[in-house]
């Protein structure tokens, strides 16, 4: 909504432009009228629309044509004043003033015009018969007002209509020639209908209509008023009401009726409540509310945001199979101006056997977007109407900014729910397979992924000491000479090599020595494709010797060439290491806990379900711990 309104009065000399302004200000007709009134500003608190209003007078005797042109370019609305008892001043409206204004304004953003018939006290007849054909000829004319500066008739109404023409313009909403809403208005109102249709059944029941009414006008409708509204629609549209609820067609009809009856402010109140500007675009302030993110902090969705997203999922999961089919995804994103998720999303999160995004995968994708690009997440929540449905000031209320990671390390505890693992390795080492295995896909399923649908991210949930956490895997492109801060910034690092490729481990060794040897970030070496024959690596040290030298845990064997979904224990251990970073020589205890370590768990943790990362063969765990210590 505009922060102020600038009204310009033009017209032939002696039609009463200055008198109108002075009568408005003093509430009485002036004894002496100057050639031109000084610009006045009416404060916001005394205007019906609560917006400061500037009123500017034009005098042919005192101002040049250039000054007039400047004022026309600055005006938000122009009142063309004529005298009802002067035919020549009426003729000048069409022969001079409207063409002059149109020549000086942009065709795509024409300024609204109001025709003002002054001196109505001097005649007994109305000028409307003459003026109506003019209004029908020129679509820029919002309305016509007959008034009298002398007896103060319709003076305040004149300036109210002028304000209204700026703050609640007809142009973006309605096409008078076709007598119907414009496409941009239909599109905006359709989004509003879909957000308000909380159960997504295609009709607004009484509860949803009252939710809409409270949201936009801060008051519910009485039961009789609800019935009256529906009866108006029933009388005019056969399919406007269904199952005693308002259909989209009925909803659009009501707004058409408001506009045709001059109640533009009703539709504009609705549009602005749902984030639209004068051009029926969602405002930047609505889509991208301010949010401060200090360095070394991350962004996550909070509990209310997940509840909201769960309700959106349930609303569109029509077949109740806990997954979104392509049609259901398309329906969900109808309130967006574009499709936000590409085909790579299906290879970023968990899907069912049909390749449809599961409920867990859906929440994981939202978690990923919020972590990587919180502004994009805010935008998406804005399209879905989070702040409106949850009655929040903005969708920034859905975001939690985590505390600095350094504080987590000092306190040896974390409040975060999302942890990032960067996966590095030479080309062909098995990084992509490692990511897809986290989503439960074995090698056979991975072969079905199209190359142009490949994703460099994989995110899903793991359980650490009974707590659900998100692990975000990011496959880093193998450029040894340049790894950016984003490539290095993470909670845990996986260095992947192919056991069957003798040149594969060298990349891992060089990356570790160049970037991570002095880092506090835990590192794990993954011996991928362990189902294949292991060959001797060409690097000067074997992977096991390299890990022993740098106090890393021995390489973790991994394969996704399995008949069932790959085992997820390794990913749980990675999440645990990310949550509780340890010095390099202690990493082994997190990766393969010994029996002694298990016995030292507190009773509170033992009372919980034992995490998958701890369910390892006790003898193997004991041997691993002994070997590492030696």
Write the layout of secondary structure elements.
Blueprint (H helix, E strand, L loop, with lengths): L4 E7 L5 H10 L13 E3 L10 E5 L7 H10 L2 E7 L3 H17 L9 E6 L9 H10 L3 E6 L8 H13 L6 E2 L4 E2 L1 H14 L6 E2 L1 H12 L5 H14 L4 E2 L2 E3 H13 L3 H10 L10 H4 L11 E3 L1 H14 L6 E2 L1 H7 L24 E2 H14 L1 H11 L1 H4 L9 E3 L3 H7 L6 E8 L5 H8 L4 H4 L10 E8 L2 E9 L9 H4 L3 E7 L5 H13 L6 E6 L14 H7 L6 E2 L11 H11 L7 H5 L3 H5 L3 H5 L10 H12 L1
Parallel strand pairs: 1-3, 1-4, 4-5, 5-6, 16-18, 16-19, 19-20, 20-21
Antiparallel strand pairs: 2-3, 7-8, 9-11, 10-11, 12-15, 13-14, 17-18
Helix pairs in contact: 9-10, 14-15
Could you characterize the architecture of this molecule?
This protein is α/β, with parallel strands linked by helices. 41% of the residues lie in helices and 15% in strands. The chain is built from 27 helices and 21 strands. The strands form six sheets. It has a six-stranded mixed β-sheet with strand order 2-3-1-4-5-6, with helices on both faces. The chain has a six-stranded mixed β-sheet with strand order 17-18-16-19-20-21, with helices on both faces. The chain has a three-stranded antiparallel β-sheet with strand order 9-11-10. The radius of gyration is 35 Å and the shape is elongated. It starts with a strand and ends with a helix.
